[in-house]
Structure formats: C-alpha cells, structure tokens
Amino acid sequence: MSSPTKRDPYDVLGVARDADENSIKKAFRKLARELHPDVNAHDPAAEEKFKEAAEAYEILSDPERRATFDRYGHEGLRAGGGAPNFDGFGSITDLFDAFFGGSSPFGGGRGGPAAGGDIAVQVDITLAEAFTGLKRSVGYEVVAPCEDCNGNGAQPGTPLNTCSRCGGAGRLQAVRRTAFGQVVQTVECDTCHGDGRIAEQPCERCAGRGREVQDRELEVDIPAGIADGQRIRLSGRGHAGEPGAPAGDLYVLVHVLPHETLLRDGDDLVTVLDVPAPLAALGTTIEVELLDGPAEVRVPAGTQPGEVLAVRGRGMPVLRRQGRAGDLRAVVDVVVPRRLSKEQKGLLEQLAATITDENTRSDETVTGKLRRLLGGR
Predict the structure, then answer these.
(1) Dihedral angle at the C-alpha atoms of 272, 273, 278, 283, nearest 10 degrees?
(2) For residue 272, what are the CA distances in angstroms to 126, 294, 334?
(3) pLDDT class for 173, splitting at 50, 70, 90?
(4) Cα–Cα distance measured from residue 47 to residue 61, given in angstroms and rounded to the nearest whole number
C-alpha cells in the first residue's frame, strides 16, 4: 500500500521559497500556537497537522535538508536518510516538548503541570472617571474546573483508575531520531495527559475534559490617576491551569475616552484659553471648568497668543501618590472681536489712533515669535 503524498513544506508553513530562517521560524510558531495541546488535547486531527508542520520545519530549518528538498523533493530526502520521522512520539504534547525544549511556545513550562493562560479585557472610562477613580464590573469568559467533577474528568460517584499506558506515572519515555542519533525524552503521557489516572466514566458535563468555559463578572478597582493604555493585573483570575498548577492572570486594559475641552499630558491637564484681545491687553481673570470644579486663571496684562499660563496642582492626580497632582496648563488663544457694533467700532478707532511703536515693540526675535505661534515647531 503506497503512502499518501506529502505536501510541499513551503505550502505547509505558508512561506515563499526564498523565505529566510526567521520567516520560517515565525510561520512555524504561528501554526504551533493554533495547535497548542491545551486547546487541542482531545482533537486527534491536531496531532497530525502538527506533525506535518513539524516535519516541514525540520526540513526548511536545516540548510542541507532544504537544499536536498529543493533539488530532489521528498524522494531525495528519503533516499538520503534525511526525512524526519515523528512516529516515536506519543502525542502532540510530546512533539511540543521536543520542539520547544520542554516548554510551551507561549513561555509556560511543560516540565510539570502547565499554568493557566492569561486573559485580557478592555474597559472604557471617561477622563473624569480617571480623575476620581472608580469601581467597574467587567465580564469575561474563562476556562475553569468543571463544577460537576471538580476538574478530575470523572462522572460524580464513579472511580478514577490508574492509567494502563504509563502505570500511573503520568510520564512516558519517547525516542526521537535526530541527525545526531537517537534522543530519549521523558514526556507527558498522551492517554491520561500527565494525571496518571483515567476516568472510568467521563463526566457528562465536560465530556471528561475536567474543564469548561464559564462566564465570570468581577468588580475591578480602577485607581485615580490611571492613564490611557495602562493595565491592572488581577493575579489568579485567568484560565485554570493543569492539576497542581496555578491559574493565569486577568489583565484589565484601560482606555480613557477623549474629553471635549481637556487634554492629558502626563499628570498635567492642558486646555485652550480664549481671551478677547482687549482683555489680553488689559489683563483679566478667566474661570475655567475642570474635572473637580472651576479654576481661576490669571491673565497678565499684555499676554500674547500661544503663551502658556499654569495653575499649580489642578491637573490629574499622580497615580498611587495621594495628595499629589499635576498642573493645569492653559494655552492662550487671543480672540479678535468680530461683528462689532457702531459704538464698539468707535471705541476701537479711538484706541487705534493712540497706538504707537512703543505699544507693539517686543524684545522677542522673529525666530522666537514663529516658534511661539507655531507651538514650538
């Protein structure tokens, strides 16, 4: 009986024929993530798909094997004894151990029970809520121990039997053939998945997996002063790990929505202060509405467009520094009055007639003026 035709390794990994080493490795790891044993332990097709991807990677990551394949195809590899063989491995978990040095491609160790994966959820809050801090309920899905079997995979009231394949050890020895000879590895038992026990009657609720997807809702304390893009870590609130291993973490990613009149710059708040030209010349005090109430901004006589006026301590709270806050920075926009009445025009004409070079002269250079007017560009 003839063996099925093997696919082109370039097609398997989805890379071009001139792909470099990094592109090949990146493509293989992407496929590996999709076939991770924590997700596909009960999918027999996943093992074959990973074996195919692993074989393609073994060929294309070895310059000599790759050159042989490019010239003669799979027949050339078989004739020269360079064809990969993964028949000595018991499961997809074993293959992951072989290719990733006993570790998951996601960073978690596979030498013992694997820790649960992390979860990320995003919450949107207003700038005012970031100013005061708040409690927010977040909902998410999590892989958790089955509530009926408490994670052991057995129907309640039925026994767990010692695994006949590994004798209850949960580990097996596998032999891998490499270019340097045979390598003996201790790998997780593919039958009991490292537990050492098999359910006589699988749990009906979780089909013997010991885990199920559950909906969770959690109240999260979002501190005052948190900034857009920051995250809050809640330890142990992520996906359940394997028996004896800790659960992953929950990360709450905070997105602060834009405010109509205020911008945040670090711990400072920035706003534009519209000042009528006559008041900018005479000096005045203008009230600005902030997140915690009004603030008075003193505009000195002769204030120019683009000048920045600061009010100390009226910015955002400094995160986890109680009593500390940034500043308010008000950028002056001198507004020239429009749609003047006859009386207003007359008054301005009287003022214009009295303006001299002494009133408009400045020690500022042309370069300095341009920088101020263009916002420091």
Answers:
(1) -130
(2) 20, 15, 10
(3) confident
(4) 20
Q: Which residue in this structure is represented by tokens 């955002």? A: 316
Helix (H) or strand (E) holding 72: helix 63-79
| Residue whose token pair is 């074959």 | 48
Q: Which residue has the higher pLDDT, 33 or 232?
A: 232
| Closest C-alpha among 96, 126, 89 to residue 111 | 96
CA dihedral 161, 163, 169, 172 (to 10 degrees): -170
Q: How far apart are CA 273 and CA 9, in angstroms?
A: 64
Q: How far is Cα 286 from Cα 300, in angstroms, rounded to an integer?
A: 11
Q: Kindly give the pairing relationship between strand 263-265 and strand 268-276.
A: antiparallel
Residue 273 CB-density burial (10 A; 0-12 exposed, 13-18 middle, 19+ buried): buried
Please name the residues in contact with 163: beta carbons below 8 A apart, sequence gap of 6 or more: 170, 189, 191, 192, 195, 196, 197, 198
For residue 328, the cross-strand partners are 269, 311
**Overall pTM > 0.85:** no
Residues 211 and 191: their CA atoms lie apart, in Å, by 17
